[in-house]
Amino acid sequence: MKLWAGRIQGEADKRLDDFNSSLPFDCRMYKQDIGGSMAHATMLRECGILTAEECERILAGLSAILRELESGALGFDEEAEDIHTFLEQELTRRIGDAGKRLHTARSRNDQVALDLRLYLRDEAAGIMDQLRTLIGVLCGRAQGSLDVVMPGYTHMQRAQPVTFAHHLMAYAQMFLRDIGRLEDAYKRMNRCPLGCGALATTTYPINRGMTAELLGFDGPCENSMDGVSDRDFCVELCCALSLIMTHLSRFCEEIILWCSWEFRFVELSDAFSTGSSIMPQKKNPDIAELVRGKTGRVNGHLITLLTMLKGTPLAYNKDLQEDKEAIFDAVDTVKTSLEAFTPMVDTMRINRQNMRAAAAKGFINATDCADYLTKKGLPFRDAYQIVGRLVAHCIETEETLETLPLEEYQSFSDKFAEDVYDAISLDACVDGRSVLGGPAAEAVRRQIESVQAALGEDEEEEE
After folding, report:
1. Would you say the C-alpha torsion 163, 164, 169, 171 has a positive or negative sign?
2. pLDDT digits (tens, 9 = 90+) for 147-193
3. Which of 358, 376, 393 is the last residue of a domain?
4. 156: left (phi over 0), alpha (psi -120 to 50) or beta
5. Can you give the pTM of this predicted structure?
6. Is residue 451 within 8 Å of 176, Cβ to Cβ?
7. C-beta separation of 170 from 138 below 8 A
8. Half-sphere exposure of residue 159, counting CA atoms within 13 Å on the CB side?
9. In the 8-state DSSP scheme, what is residue 313?
């Protein structure tokens, strides 16, 4: 029997049932639904709305259902409209009228809002743990590559020398911000809608603060209409997930370039690569390509959620059922992407010789050459023009700044002396940039320590 049987007479069209059903995707929230129902029953007993015997039977029945669902002894009824209907009907089948009394002072509107917050709260915490693991891997790889010089790029053109460690820590900062965004979303998500009813609470003397506390929320939602119709927490979480995927995608794009024969900066482990069905020489970075592709999928879910909300008046509307498939798939996509991406990065081999060889080309020490003249007393703009002409001359004569004879340097400026070669060496270019945030080994070591400290503080706050 439908929970809404009474006002609606006759059998529903099978096509309506199929279109209306959400059980295939909301069944994943069975733990949260059972946990929320147990807290609700406990509160009803404390408020004198349920007897102690009724509450005990409800709690025992729900515990048994949970055990059987976990073990596989009980399966979901495909005829049920949603997970809430299935569990209520299964409980009533087992314990009789006491099961029907569980829904006192509660609507499916606040029930589904509760389950979704509980579920996404757990998932957000899990993704934060995955990001911490990834950041730990990046810090470890950076610690081992403080002296690996590589070219830094702007406009995809070689620009200035950096280190591989410096490059990795840029991504560590992105993922650290992602954790911060998830923490912020978690805080605003952590309000309990149970007790909001369909939209206008209830006439029963319930204790909303008690259920919120039992379920680990910071407190109840302050407005009942907002409590049942708010899906900002889905949008905010999905926005954070989209940024995580964007950061993963940027990193994947670089890995794809780096492991190509044109770069050969890294080599992916065979365990995280695939081959070609026709070209035996191929070793393809499929994981990186898939993560890059799946980013569009999560971004699409964000647009789905925003579009779903933009035209819905207060309070609950069936449109809101569309929130689950979008946010669930966004969560799943991020989790599986991190699960594959993290060990791929952890096991890839760094080709430091190729990185350094690439850094030796492209005049990426030109800025340091200009700085050399500035330290000799020339205004930077004058020094810039002199070095620009020097580079043009080197290109014409097929020289580099390292190989250009000193007398040719001095034909452009008498400020040049033998020490110019020390100033423009790759190691000097990197080591000289030891200011906060720079690529020098000591500066990157400080970045690693700062990120590790931030992770430690973050974990302490959660505990």
Report:
1. positive
2. 999 999 999 999 999 999 999 999 999 999 999 999 999 999 999 99
3. 358
4. left
5. 0.92
6. yes
7. no
8. 8
9. P
Q: How far apart are CA 416 and CA 421, in angstroms?
A: 10
Tokens of 124: 């957000």
Structural domains in the chain (count): 3
Q: Counting beta carbons within 10 angstroms of the beta carbon of residue 318, is it exposed (0 to 12), middle (13 to 18) or buried (19 or more)? A: exposed
Say if residue 324 is in the same domain as residue 431: no
Q: Which residues contact 68 (CB under 8 A, 6 or more apart)?
A: 74
Domain range for 32: 14-104
**Neighbouring residues of 220: CB distance < 8 A, sequence distance ≥ 6:** 191, 192, 193, 194, 195, 208, 209, 211, 212, 227
In whole angstroms, give the CA distance from residue 335 to residue 347.
19
Q: Which residues are catalytic?
A: 155, 276
Angle between helices 366-375 and 380-397 (to 10 degrees): 140
Angle at 287 between CA 285 and CA 290, to 5 degrees: 110
197 with 238, same domain?
yes
- The string over 324-361, giving b where at least 16 C-beta atoms fall within 10 Å of a residue's C-beta and e elsewhere, is bebbbbbbebbeebbeebbbbbbebebbbebbbebbbe
* No. of helices (H) and no. of strands (E), the chain: 20, 4
- What are 212-248's pLDDT values in tens digits? 999 999 999 999 999 999 999 999 999 999 999 999 9
Cα-to-chain-centroid distance, residue 32: 22
- Read off the CATH number of the domain in which 218 is found: 1.20.200.10
Report d(CA 27, CA 119) in Å as an integer: 11
* 253 & 343 share domain: yes
The DSSP code for 318 is: G
Could you give the CA distance from residue 160 to residue 367 in angstroms, rounded to a whole number?
A: 8
Residue type, 260: S
In whole angstroms, what is the distance from residue 429 CA to residue 422 CA? 9
Q: Which residues are within 8 A (CB) of 127 and not within 5 positions of it... i.e. 6 or more apart?
A: 182, 241, 244, 331, 334, 335, 338
